[in-house]
Amino acid sequence: MEIDHLLSTTRAVRRKLDLDRPVEAAVLEECLNLALQAPTPGNVQAWRWLVVRDQEVKNRLGVLFREVGEAYLAGKADADPRALASGRHLVDVIERVPVFVIPVLQGRPTGDNATDAAFYGGIFPAVWNFQLALRSRGLGSTLTTYHLSREAEAAEILGIPAGHTQAGLLPVAYTTVPDFKPAPRNPLSEVAYLDHWGTPLS
Asked: pLDDT by residue (tens digit) across 90-102?
């Protein structure tokens, strides 16, 4: 896939996930291997990846996901209707998504901005690599964080040891459409500055 097209059309996929088509282990491993090529602070490679296929485990995580997600969506009644419908759909079907991938970091955040920027900087580039690799193979995902409000319960379900930080949950499936379009975004002139805050870039 042409690089600019890949970068501009890798969407957060919720409603267009194929809930019935299995995801092959080999494809997931290819995508995770590409995730491991992402930059990592100090080459620490503190990432760990938990791939969840077991239906009972997905069901238990789905309870946490749904309880938090429903409460969140109920408080967003004035949000964009399409975004709400998309989020609602995923909450409703979460257990049916073929695979969950949970990125995990060794260690815990400290609350210091500089330290935590480096801490999370050790996982999010790898997550994006993973999502791009999925997209290039006809799969979709979205980085969700609902279950993180119940992180300790999720850790118990998954057997994640103390001293590790879950950074999200990615529902992974093939997509029901072959391609996506670039999303509407605020123009660069409104969000990028030159030398000082508020100074136009050009």
From this structure: 999 999 999 999 9
